[in-house]
Amino acid sequence: MRPIFRTLQDPQQRPAAGLCSLCGGELYPGDDAWQINQLLICGDCLPAYARQLLAPHHQICGGEEETL
Q: Which pLDDT tens digit goes with each residue over 14-31?
């Protein structure tokens, strides 16, 4: 009988490497994630987080200019 080596772990049984700070989703080795302001953010949450973070700098082009 030949020995069977199980070096490749089933991806569904791997432990999560981290959790997204916004949605709580599990992040696994090789997943894209961003560390921003002490938060770990997954790729699905990044666009909404970026819009929220950059909202104070939002402008509508072609509108009337405000005087400060």
A: 789 999 999 999 999 999
Provide the whole-model pTM.
0.67
For the chain, how many residues are written?
Answer: 68
- Helix (H) or strand (E) holding 35, with range, is strand 33-36
CA-atom Rg of the chain in angstroms? 21
Q: Tell me, what DSSP letter sits at residue 12?
A: G
Q: Across the chain, which distance is largest between two alpha carbons, in Å?
A: 83
Residue with structure tokens 């994630």?
33
Residue 7 or residue 49, greater confidence? 49
CB atoms within 10 A of CB 21: 18
